């Protein structure tokens, strides 16, 4: 079984300028937990409930600078800068994950599941010839596995 066999083809996307409020409204209305951020035909990021929750929770922490000092020490300057950007973010470009892991339509489901576990991600865009043609979520893999006698082949 390949990505094209289990992907959702009607992918809802936002642009980098979409506001956090608009993203939250889309996630709620569509009953989804994340979506690709596109600029033209390019997928430039992924934004999720986690990104919104991180932003909102971080803004409420009175001692966030002290917490971030720990992040600098434990995870490095890049993670610190990303945390600051997400906390202050008002648009998709501010809070999205920029390192997008994608697959092509021929990628085996087993490989997609491995990517999700290895990189602790919940969704993977499916891209063919540079164009977003679908998305696979953990729920898609679970649905596929539920119909199989062998969990994932």
Overview features:
153 residues; alpha+beta; CBS-domain; two-stranded antiparallel ribbon; two-stranded antiparallel sheet; 8 helices; 49% helix
Largest sheet: number of strands, sense, barrel closure: 2 strands, antiparallel
Average of pLDDT? 82
Tell me what portion of residues adopts beta-strand conformation: 15-25%
Give the count of helical stretches.
Answer: 8
Nearest-angstrom radius of gyration?
A: 17 Å
Gross morphology is: globular
Helix content: 40-55%
Order of helices and strands: HHEEHHHHHEEH
The CATH class name reads Alpha Beta
- How many angstroms does the end-to-end distance come to? 7 Å
Biggest sheet, strands in spatial order? 1-2
How many β strands by DSSP?
Answer: 4
Topology:
Elements: H1 3-6, H2 20-30, E1 34-39, E2 42-48, H3 49-60, H4 64-75, H5 77-88, H6 92-95, H7 109-119, E3 123-128, E4 131-137, H8 138-146
Antiparallel strand pairs: 1-2, 3-4
Helix pairs in contact: 3-5, 4-5
Give an overview of the whole structure.
The chain has one domain: Roll (CBS-domain), CATH 3.10.580.10. The protein has a two-stranded antiparallel ribbon. The chain is of the alpha+beta class and 153 residues long. The longest helix is centred in the middle third of the chain and has 12 residues. Strand 3 and strand 4 form a beta hairpin. The protein has eight helices and four strands.
Summarize the structure.
The protein is an alpha+beta fold and 153 residues long.
